[in-house]
Amino acid sequence: METRFLLLSLSFFILLFLDVSSAQMPGFVSFDCGGQENFTDGLGLQWTPDSHLIYGETADISVANETRKQYMTLRHFPADSRKYCYTLKVISRTRYLVRATFLYGNFDSNNVYPKFDISLGATPWSTIVISDASTIEVRELIFLASSPAISVCLSNATTGQPFISTLELRQFNGSIYYTEFEEQYYLSVSARINFGADTEAPVRYPDDPFDRIWESDTLKKANYLVDVAAGTKKVSTKMPIDVNSDDNPPEKVMQTAVVGTNGSLTYRLNLDGFPGFGWAYCYFAEIEDLGSDESRKFRLILPGNTDISKAVVNIEENAHGKYRLYEPGYTNLSLPFVLSFRFGKTSDSSMGPLLNAMEINKYLEKNGGSLDGTVIGNMVSYYSSCDSDPQPKITKISLSRKNLTGSISSDLTKLTGLVELWLDGNLLTGPIPDFSGCTDLKIIHLENNQLTGGLPSSLISLPNLRELYVQDNMLSGTIPSGLLNKDLVFNYTGNINLQKGNKKGSHITIIIGSSVGAAVLLIGTIVSCLFMSKGKKKYSERDQLEHALPVGRLVSKTDAPTEAAQCFTFCEIEDATRKFEKKIGSGGFGVVFYGKMKDGKEIAVKVLSSNSYQGKREFSNEVTLLSRIHHRNLVQFLGYCQEGDRCMLVYEFMHNGTLKEHLYGKPACFSIK
Fold this sequence. Notes:
Blueprint: E1 13-17, E2 28-32, E3 39-40, E4 46-49, E5 57-60, E6 73-76, E7 83-89, E8 95-102, E9 115-120, E10 123-129, E11 137-144, E12 149-159, E13 163-164, E14 166-171, E15 185-194, E16 215-216, E17 232-236, H1 251-254, E18 256-260, E19 264-270, E20 276-283, E21 298-301, H2 315-318, E22 329-335, E23 338-345, E24 354-355, E25 357-365, H3 371-382, E26 396-398, E27 405-407, E28 420-422, E29 427-430, E30 443-445, E31 450-453, E32 467-469, E33 474-478, H4 481-484, E34 489-491, E35 497-499, E36 509-510, H5 523-533, H6 541-545, E37 566-567, H7 570-576, E38 583-586, E39 590-596, E40 602-608, H8 613-626, E41 637-643, E42 646-652, H9 659-664
Parallel strand pairs: 1-7, 2-4, 15-16, 26-28, 27-29, 28-30, 29-31, 30-32, 31-33, 32-34, 33-35, 34-36, 37-41
Antiparallel strand pairs: 2-14, 3-4, 5-6, 6-13, 7-12, 8-11, 8-14, 9-10, 9-12, 11-15, 15-25, 17-18, 18-24, 19-23, 20-22, 20-25, 21-23, 38-39, 39-40, 40-42, 41-42
């Protein structure tokens, strides 16, 4: 089954639609990539395999000291130019955390550490650089859903193959992680730290109802919480902590802390994704029992941010009591990649600073990509049959009269399955690119633009090309002789600097107008003859210009039969042509369609190109002139239709061919359908 798309974007991507209808924790989705069965892990999280996907390949891995089932398998994809996207359903205007993890485990037996990109839709998220086969790389992003689905995509492998171990989605409630910039930016998680932890194990679900992962400060990894000040010690309590709501760090995180007994807490760590602007919060709760003569006051010292150091933290006072959360933070703070920070006690404080937890996120600017891509992606996810083709291709681009500007992107030439290209009626400039790689191309419509340069000789090499419309541009040079000898419907009129060569024996049908429209070419001659035969009878300029468009019934001023020019409705025309089903010709003015009225009368309908100023002038002139002039040797003009931007001329349909055929004979190959 061939999957047909309109133009989604200039990058070719494959969507992997995941069925998330299976039972999950409310607002939770957990995919075991490469897995084969549903299971519940030791935390109570329910995992679903992506086994029904037909893209990518699965692999089993074994890593020392890793026993979690979701890390026993993975799914990997070809290292090609495509984007491979997992698409998940979400609730619009709701905030989520999406988490992707990557455990290499030498799945390909090559010991070549992969490097590739991950993105959320069109927005680049992070570059995954594997540096150890047994280390799990984790990426988390917080976002406000703006559509019913999101896509997590892997692409651009520079070494190895893109792969993924798990993909998780966690729904937030209320205003958690609200920022005034969320319409334009995502929050990429750089650090979420539990200070004073007694083990290296993180705190997450079920202690955190949103399954945020709070990493232990005792975790050993490069450039993570180094340069620790002397006198730093861990403290903890079993007392309950008032954290106000589920939005804040869980109680288990707030029951531990570090204290700077020598008056300072200092740390240095690398922030993934920085330098840049970020969102940073610290979390404090007084979990030590201070004497009546003891106090804890301190400041945050951040190099390059002197204003921050002015604020004094007094946890018990700020939180209005012991064992209560105080959460100062900054929603728009410039931070470096290597962050060094210090908490120092004030001169009137008897106790050193205390820190329970910290979160730092980087603002990641959204890339909207193509709106069409979002719309079509949603349509494909809605109609399940659309992803049945393991190698879907874009076969038709239909962007006529969309006010497109700029040049025709060369990326279009990479769509090897393209059959029809409709870019007519826009404001495109520049040259026509080389489409020689699009060997399936049958129809090219580039008319009514502002294209310049010559006609590429590469068009000759397109074996299936049947229609080429380039009229009414600003093309120049000589038409390649191979195009003139090709069995092709070809219209290049309206390009005054585009010349036909001296080659003979052309078998091409050059469409100057429709069979009915050609009669207009004789109007001037016949009018002149009529004038001369009547002794050069004069009509005033006022008579010639009155009634620019006929209203009701206009009667000819000649002695010809008084056939009226009827004003047809668009519905009448649409019914007669069966919604413009059969095209019988084309010209600079527009396209001509065959029709049949309810009374059996056959008609030819010439449709004005909606953005052609020259065509609109011709329309007014032709209606005015044809409604007044009749002759037995002229095709009968029946009327017109003008509704909004729709302008059409209605003629009697002639079965005996075009005027050109009667004057010069029928061409050897006639290909108008």
